[in-house]
Amino acid sequence: MSTTIKDSSAALKSAYAEAGWSRIPFRFDSKALELIRERVASISRERRPEVVHEKDSDVVRAIHGCHLFDDVCSALVRHPQLVALAEILTGKPVYVYQFKVNLKQAHEGAAWPWHQDYAFWNKEDGMPRPEAVNVAISLDDTHEDNGPLTVIPGSHRLGLIGLPNTVEGEGDWRRHVSADLAYTVNTDTASDLAQRNGTELMVGPAGSVHAFHPSLVHSSSNNSSPDRRALLLITYNAVDNAPVAPTRPEFLVSRETTPITPRRDDRLAVEPHGQAPATTTAPPPDHEPG
User: Fold this and answer.
1) CA 183, CA 177: separation in Å to the nearest integer?
2) When comparing pLDDT for 167 and 48, which is higher?
3) What's domain 5-282's architecture?
């Protein structure tokens, strides 16, 4: 099986357009994963604004903007396969809009409520259109008990759903990275969508790569298992879709909108994803996860 993303571009584009997400037919190898995990662990121990903790806890929830100051993360966003994937799915030259690692520690990782990423990017940053793509890399084995992403396939075609005219605490970026999200999809609305479209879990072995649309409705439950779940997310945005005057910190929304130049780094090798698609149908939720 080829690990060249262009070989499967037609199938990927079709699946992505239909469902709003797709599993990518390659994964990062064990040496690349070990290196990325080491860097994430090192950054997580630092006291800096890019490192977010669970509420009233020293448990790290997420880290942001690592590509701006870490050489491995900087090399990762320039990976030729990832850049090609983003350009295929957006149909345009891209730049890195956002970089983050969401961490769900064993038995402690809290839920993320139903939401659409594009709600934040449009309302807070002024991104004109959802012409971006999230590329998600599993740093750990991800299974149904350690808080995987739950997605509602096809929900990206509905646009932004049920946003309020005003939001309490609007403009406070901390409400965009905590469990108390500023923009969420109403629980009843999400349940209705799930009844119609079903839900799927974004699961798979460590190193797996998935892509999902900015308007895809998704959530994740608490981590009830003894296994950590770390998910690295790179958001690539079309160059002609950059916000004009973003106000959130640089580590949440990049001001550098020059088309990214792919660059190979032998430390970050990929291999064919030789397993059957790791997609599990989840039961339709009747309440917010967690």
Assistant:
1) 11
2) 48
3) Sandwich (2.60)
